[in-house]
Amino acid sequence: MKTINKILGFSAMALLGLFSVSCVDGNDWDVDSAYNRLFSVGDDNITVTADTTSATVEFSSVSGAEYYIIEVSEDSLYNDIALGGTSSSIVYGQDGSITSSPVVIDGLSGETKYYLRMKSYSSTTTESHWAYYKSGGTFKTLAEQLFYDLADDDVSSTSVHVTWPANAEVTHLGYKTASQEDTTMIALDAATIAAGEYTFEDLQSTTTYTFFIFNGNVKRGSFTVTTVSAAPDADFTYTIPSGTTRIDQDLMSEIVAEAQEAAGQTNVSITISLPAGEELEVCSAAETEGNYSSLSIPEGISVTFWCGSANKATLKMIKSLEIGGYHNSIGFENVILKDNNDDNPYIINQTNACTIGEVSFKSVEINDLDRSLFRLQNSNYDKTIGKLTLDDCVITNQGSGNYAFILYKDANIRGDEVEITNCTFNTMQYTFIQCAGSNGSDKITIENCTFYNSIGSGRYLVDAQDLSTEIYLTNLVLAKTYVETGAKGGRTGGSFYCTNVLQTNDFVISSNDIKADMKDDDVSSSDLFVDPENGDFTIQINKYAEFGDPRWYPADE
């Protein structure tokens, strides 16, 4: 009732006012022309869609406006600042060219925050008040990418060659590793800017670097790349000729004989240098083509299969590598490894007795591995591995054949230590490490690694049941289990030590919790990563920027 009264009273007063006006020939007060101005477009009626060096501005039109002026600045804008009054101001439309929405404004800097305001203008009426984008908020342009894509020969073990458009507006280059707080800056001279290319030298091998290009303080491009591994130290290096299609027993015997003669001793270490970008089969053919057996590494010989190019060679394991006997080391470095589907769903599947100081996989890529990377099996023969090492590897889609990625199966098998660092494991469908039932491993270390879509139903991240294995998990990302329910964490008679182990809310463990120390119930794998379903695990949440595999740390200055 009170509301109705007020409305009626207001209406009556309005009617009285109308009668009063009708009785007077003209106003007996002056109208201040300053109040006779155009409406503004309104803070809430401006939208901005940013690109790298431009932005599209949309706004509501104003009745009577003939044109509009837009101002952007890296500094705050407010009413007391005159048009163009900041050192970074850019003004658009003073020539009357902005007459309708939308409009594209250019000349901006990439990856930069801008304030924006605008006015409406007319030749007959005072201009409007300022309207401010997001009531004084900012928009940010997208990151530029001035760098051209790298060619295969642009990256070596100690250098990276970069290129960009000749004579571009740039002043500096920069680079840093994941462990560096500050970016190392390099001023560019006129000749280098004109050429549009530069070679970073004296870099460390097998190290992930982020490179930048700047114009003053404005970043105009960046990318991250890992340098190639340097040739492993060895008594002898044998280079496989380009065009070779198979490493068989005859070729292996030839390599070993040359190495022994050159070194003047029987037990030698050999680096086998593989041709860039080529695929070679690994097996030893029997009497008839197609009847293959395993390629055997002779007793006392240490071998590393290595490629010295960013364009990695591929080794297709037609049969598993036979590493029986005594060896100081067996390794694969900077290569792509492939199994042979049902004929050989392993990389190494060791049956015979062996004693090996270290088996290593460094900068290795494996896609679609049906069973195990490394399997020791058969209780009739003793097998001992001093250390199994994985570093800087990317493994995608393993375990469809229901075998653990690393499998020490029987009681007479001994693996002293497993160390896994700086690796990404994408879609691991079974158990990751299984040493339950073996003679065990004293220590398992997993550090600086990213796991996504891992652990099958009823399976484990690490299974060391009834063993005294000490398991150290440090700076990991555990994101999304392969199954929604039924995945298990780990078990050991020793202990789990978790330090900076991030577990997303879709990494769901049903039992045997490893007690990750940084569970985040508000963050899923899709929140954390840029595009995990397509293999982009770049971190996009700042507080977790340096968790997991360093190759996915977001680039910054």
Q: Give the strand tally.
A: 42
Shape: elongated
Gap from first CA to last CA? 65 Å
Low-confidence blocks of residues = 1-32
**Major sheet details:** 18 strands, parallel
Sheet-strand content, in percent, reads 35-45%
What is the residue-averaged pLDDT? 91
The secondary structure category is mainly beta
Multimeric status of the protein: single chain
Helix content: under 10%
Account of the protein in words:
The chain has 557 residues and is mainly β. The chain contains 4 helices and 42 strands.
Q: Layout of helices and strands, plus pairs?
A:
Elements: H1 2-22, E1 46-50, E2 54-59, E3 67-73, E4 90-92, E5 103-106, E6 113-121, E7 131-132, E8 138-140, E9 160-163, E10 172-177, E11 184-187, H2 190-195, E12 197-200, E13 208-215, E14 218-226, E15 236-239, E16 246-247, H3 249-263, E17 269-274, E18 279-282, E19 284-285, E20 292-293, E21 302-307, E22 313-317, E23 325-333, E24 335-338, E25 348-350, E26 354-362, E27 365-369, E28 374-376, E29 383-391, E30 394-398, E31 406-408, E32 413-421, E33 424-428, E34 433-434, E35 443-454, E36 460-464, E37 470-481, E38 488-492, E39 496-504, E40 518-520, H4 525-528, E41 529-531, E42 536-539
Parallel strand pairs: 15-17, 16-18, 17-21, 18-22, 21-23, 22-24, 23-26, 24-27, 25-28, 26-29, 27-30, 28-31, 29-32, 30-33, 31-34, 32-35, 33-35, 34-36, 35-37, 36-38, 37-39, 39-40
Antiparallel strand pairs: 1-2, 2-5, 3-4, 3-6, 6-7, 6-8, 9-12, 10-11, 10-13, 13-14, 19-20, 41-42
Summed up, what is this model?
By secondary structure, this protein is mainly β. The chain is elongated, with a radius of gyration of 34 Å.
